[in-house]
């Protein structure tokens, strides 16, 4: 059995650094561990044998894997020997010692492949102990303890693994926080600097965010709008802020909604002269807003198909509406909705939204 | 002059904020950690603390929780690169008056600080989206609807914020005074900080935030 992450240490060593090495991962005073070994030494010298065993078992910081493996066998033998000495030393009879040894062997086996054999051995050990001591007086008191030890041996490895998993999760959270603090911060800063760096930084930020806070790729409306926004950012070097409060599965109609929204974003990126575009997604509606130059809808030439065909026509073909609110100098908002009012008039808000718009 | 303490563990970022904040705002102190920030804020008693959500030795809400009992007048504006809902909601629940992302422009940040100093709430579009999501009108909840639900008007205001509208534009669009818009937003913030149950809890649970 290898004791994880315990190494002899040179820093605080008195003899060979065994006690200090054990104390460190346990976060206790090395002198406490030394005292334990000293006390054990009075039990037929068990402490001394245990110390040598631990010295053999614990790798020095620089040791390679082969050296560690060779010492593991020797160390284990010595530790088992010291355990026998110690238990004999405090006056325990053979009827306790042998069940303990069997239980120990069972425990080791359980951590390897032969789990069934291990459980059987532990059970045998407990049974052996209880039958051997059923007539005794003092030792009988130890029976519940034996059962407890048995359970510990059975459950111990499982508990250990559980703790390990939690440690790994914490490690990952720590890493996420670290990356978050360093790279994301830097990238955010770079975006305040001139042109080329901005596009690169935006892309890296998006990739990193995707890795740190993975969204469930559901192929939904919100996902598709996110992807369209990413493409526009990439193509035009603008920042597209997408906020969603609802989502819907992607079908033919919502697909048209996404394509119309993409066209609206592309228009804003090309013509508005802004660095940031706001996009808001609800279950049946998408809003694309910029604070750019705005335009006069009447003045847009008939040859320009963007709005007429790619936005309005596309929405109308799936029974939805497109409304464009724009004032020269104040920016533009394109409101795309899959819902219609009952009277057939264009509706500003999607039906999932709880309030009616007062604005014409 | 609005007195501001800046708490962020990155020198470079603090320098950037310092350069961007406009007239009328004075940075009276800078701290890089929770440990540094708490006594400094208590001593300087600033109007506004610009607070990063992730600090080297803890999170921004720890600062708020330690300072607020002693200095209830100090207002916090959270500033972060994170869009993760748990970061946003966590710091707002702790008592921050608003949440903006670090990509915010200089003038917008100045405006946000001024607003928070005046006691108003600052909702970025993203925060508005999270709140709408959390309070999504669904099945009527049995208890305390006053606290746990948004009014139609509050919902409307939040939706326009989420769409990228500024308060003034919202006021014009809804035919309200800007003051009324601000009081709606402040009411939403209060509900966020007070309602510990139901809508918010369920929403957070769905996202495994709590």
Keywords for this entry:
heterodimer, A: 360 residues, alpha+beta, five-stranded mixed β-sheet, 11 helices, 5 strands, 58% helix, disordered C terminus, B: 210 residues, alpha/beta, six-stranded parallel β-sheet, 8 strands, 52% helix
- Tell me the radius of gyration of chain A: 36 Å
Strand-residue fraction of chain A?
5-15%
The largest beta-sheet of chain A arranges its strands as 1-2-3-5-4
Order of helices and strands of chain A: HHHHHHHHHEHEEHEE
Structural Rg of chain B: 17 Å
Distance between the termini of chain A: 77 Å
Main β-sheet of chain B: number of strands, strand sense, barrel status?
A: 6 strands, parallel
Distance separating the two termini of chain B: 40 Å
Query: What's the helical proportion of residues of chain B?
Result: 40-55%
Tertiary shape of chain B: globular
Mean pLDDT of chain B: 83
Largest contact between protein chains?
A-B, 29 and 33 residues
Estimate the strand proportion of chain B: 15-25%
Structural category of chain B: alpha/beta
The counted number of beta strands of chain A is 5
Relative helix content of chain A: 55-70%
Compute the number of helices of chain B. Answer: 11
């Amino acid at each position: 059995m290898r004791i994880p992450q315990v190494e002899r240490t040179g820093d605080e060593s008195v003899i060979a650094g065994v006690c200090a090495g054990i104390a460190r991962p346990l976060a206790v005073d090395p002198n406490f561990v030394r005292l334990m070994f000293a006390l054990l030494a009075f039990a037929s010298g068990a402490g001394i044998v245990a110390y040598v065993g631990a010295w053999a078992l614990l790798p020095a910081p620089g040791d390679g894997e082969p050296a560690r493996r060779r010492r593991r066998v020797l160390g284990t033998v010595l530790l088992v020997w010291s355990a026998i000495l110690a238990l004999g030393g405090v006056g325990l009879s053979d009827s306790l010692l042998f069940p303990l040894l069997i239980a120990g062997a069972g425990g080791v086996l359980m951590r390897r492949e032969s789990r069934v054999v291990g459980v059987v051995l532990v059970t045998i050990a407990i049974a052996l102990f209880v039958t051997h001591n059923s007539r005794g007086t003092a030792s009988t008191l130890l029976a519940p303890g034996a059962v407890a030890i048995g359970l510990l041996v059975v459950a111990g490895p499982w508990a250990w693994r559980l703790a390990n998993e939690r440690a790994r999760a914490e490690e990952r959270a720590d890493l996420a926080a670290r990356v978050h603090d360093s790279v994301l911060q830097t990238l955010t800063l770079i975006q305040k600097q001139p042109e080329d760096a901005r596009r690169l930084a935006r892309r890296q930020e998006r990739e990193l965010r995707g890795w740190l806070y993975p969204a469930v790729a559901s192929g939904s409306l919100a996902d598709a709008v996110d992807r369209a926004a990413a493409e526009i950012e990439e193509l035009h070097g603008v920042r597209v802020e997408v906020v969603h409060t609802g989502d819907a599965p992607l079908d033919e109609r919502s697909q048209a909604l996404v394509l119309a929204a993409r066209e609206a974003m592309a228009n804003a990126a090309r013509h508005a002269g802004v660095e940031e575009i706001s996009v808001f997604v609800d279950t049946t509606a998408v809003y694309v807003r910029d604070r750019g130059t705005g335009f006069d809808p009447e003045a847009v030439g008939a040859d320009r198909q963007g709005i007429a065909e790619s936005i309005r026509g596309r929405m109308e073909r799936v029974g939805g509406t497109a409304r464009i609110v724009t004032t020269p100098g104040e920016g533009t908002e394109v409101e795309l909705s899959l819902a219609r009012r009952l009277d057939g008039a264009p509706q500003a808000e999607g039906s999932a939204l709880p309030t009616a718009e007062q604005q014409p | 002059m609005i007195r501001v303490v800046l708490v962020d563990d990155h020198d470079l970022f603090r320098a950037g904020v310092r350069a961007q904040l406009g007239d009328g705002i004075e940075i009276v102190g800078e701290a890089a950690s929770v440990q540094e920030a708490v006594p400094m804020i208590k001593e300087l008693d600033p109007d506004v603390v610009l607070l990063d959500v992730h600090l080297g030795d803890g999170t921004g809400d720890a600062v708020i929780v330690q300072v607020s009992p002693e200095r209830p007048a100090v207002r916090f504006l959270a500033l972060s690169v994170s869009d993760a809902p748990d970061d946003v909601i966590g710091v707002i629940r702790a008592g921050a008056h608003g949440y903006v992302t670090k990509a915010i422009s200089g003038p917008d940040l100045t405006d946000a600080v001024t607003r928070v100093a005046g006691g108003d709430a600052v909702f970025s579009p993203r925060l508005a989206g999270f709140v709408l999501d959390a309070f999504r009108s669904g099945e009527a909840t049995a208890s305390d609807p006053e606290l746990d639900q948004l009014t139609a008007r509050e919902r409307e205001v939040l939706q326009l914020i989420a769409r990228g509208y500024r308060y003034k534009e919202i006021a014009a669009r809804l035919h309200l005074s800007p003051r009324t818009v601000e009081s709606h937003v402040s009411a939403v913030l209060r509900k966020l900080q007070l309602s510990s149950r139901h809508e918010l809890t369920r929403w957070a649970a769905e996202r495994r935030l709590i």
